[in-house]
Amino acid sequence: MAARKDGIPRPAAAGEQPGWAQELLEHLRPAGRDVRRVVDWLAGTVHGSVALRDDTGTLVAGTGPVLDENLVADVTSGRIASAAWEDGERYLRLVQVGHPSRTWALAVSRDTPFDRHSADVVTHTAQVIELLLTAGETTVAGQRLRRASADLRLAILQLLMVEDTVAARRVAAGLWPGLLEADTACVYVVESEPARRDRLAEEALESTEEEALVVRCPAMDGHVIVVSPREATAGDLKSLVERYPDTFLGGSVRQSLARTATAYGQAVSALAVARFRPDKTAVYAERTHPERLMDPAALRGRTARLLRPLDAVPHHTRAELLATTRLGLEFTAVNTAKILGVSRNTVRARMERVENMLGADFDDLTARAVVHLALHTQFNLQDGQAGSAFEASVPGLAHLVSGPAVRAWAGELLERLDQDARPLRRTLRTWIAAGGNAERAAQLLGVHAQTVREHVRSAEPVLERQLLAAGTDLYEVVLAHLALGDLETPVFAGPVPTSPPG
C-alpha cells in the first residue's frame, strides 16, 4: 500500500514495492541482518507489540504479550501453522517461523483488528525472520566447521614439529586424504600485517585447493605456515604475495616430513632475505653449513659425549626433552609453547632440566649454539656410529669448531661485514658475547642500545641470516666467531647434582 496526499492508503501500482516491503528487504542486507531489529521494526510498523519465542517458550526478541503456553506449543511443534484471536481489547496473531533445527513462534498484539495490510506485513516479516535464522544457523555452523578444521590443521603441524609423522598422517587421512602421503615437503611462511592474516590463509587454502597444510601460525600473528609436497605451491603463493603490499614469502628446501621443524626454520630464515628483494620472495639457499665442514666422526663423538647425560632418562622422556629443547633454542619459550600446544612453564621446565643435565647455561649464546649443533647432529645421524670407546679420543670442542675448512668458511662469512663503514663486526661480536642483550652490549661499547640494534639489523642482509630472532642463522654466526677465536669456547660442567628431598 502507498499513501495518497490526503493520507488515505491507496493500492500500490503494478510492479511497485510497498514502502514497508522495501524497508523489510533492507533487513536482508549483510549489514542489517539482525532478528531483534526486525522484530522491533515489525512492532513499529503494525503499531503493536511483538515477541519471538523459541520452542521452549523462551523470549528471544521483543516484548510481546503473555500467551497461552499450550497454544505456543501447538505452533512450535508444528500442529498448527498460525492462530488469531481477540483477548478483551487486544487482537493477537501467532505465526509459525521455521528454523533449521526447530520451530519458533512470532506473536503480534494490536489495539485494533488486523487488516489485510498489517496481516501481510506480519506474514512477510515471519518469512524474513525465517531466512535470517536459517542464514545465521548456516553461518554459525560454517564458522564452527572452519574453526574445527583450523584446529585440526594446527594439531597436524604440531605433530610434525615433534617428528611424530605417523600420528600426523593418521589425523590428516580422515579429512584430507593424500595430504601427507609424500615423504618430503617444502615449508613456506607468508608474512603480512596481522589484520590481513585470516584473508591470506583463506586465499592460500583456495589457491592450493586444500592440497597443502595451511595453518595460522600460533606463535607469530602475521604468519601463515604452508606445508606442501606440491611443486606448484610455490607459484601459487608467489601470486598471492604479489597481490598485496607489505607481504613476503619465505620457503624452505625440500625436507623429509620428520624434519618439518628444520624446514620451518629455513622458511623463516628466508623471510629475512625476502624483505630486501623486489619480488618479496626468497627460498632458503642451500648454503654451506659449518657442521658439514667438520670431521664427521669427531662431530658424532662430541655430540654423543655432550648428550650422554640424557641417556639416563627413559626413552620417551628423552625424546620429549630433545624435541622441546630443539624448538626452544629456535624460538622463545612462549612461541615454543604455542607450537607444541603446551604451557610455557612446561617448556621452561624441560629446558631447565636439560640445562642442568648438560651443565650448560642457555643465557650464553655460545652454549646455545653448541647444544643446537649437537641436537641437530644427533637428529641427522642415521648410522648409529660413535660409541663410547670412540668418545674417549674425541678432540676438544675448540679443536672441532676451528678446523681449517671451518675457519675458511667463517672468515669469508664475517669479512662481508668489513665492507660497511660502521663497525658492524665489532658490534655483532660484542652483542653475541652479551647474550644478545642490546643494553649490555651498548654499555660495553659505550654507545646507545638503539645503535647496537641498528648495527645487528644491518648485518642481517649482508650475512643473509636472521640474527635478532634466535635460531639456526644466529647460531651459525656464533659458530663462525668461535671458529676464528673471536669468542670464548663455552664450558659444559656436566650434570648438576640436586639436593635430596628433605
UniProtKB/TrEMBL annotation:
Residues 334-376, 424-468 form the PucR C-terminal helix-turn-helix domain. It comes from the Bacteria. Pfam families: HTH_30. This is Helix-turn-helix domain-containing protein.
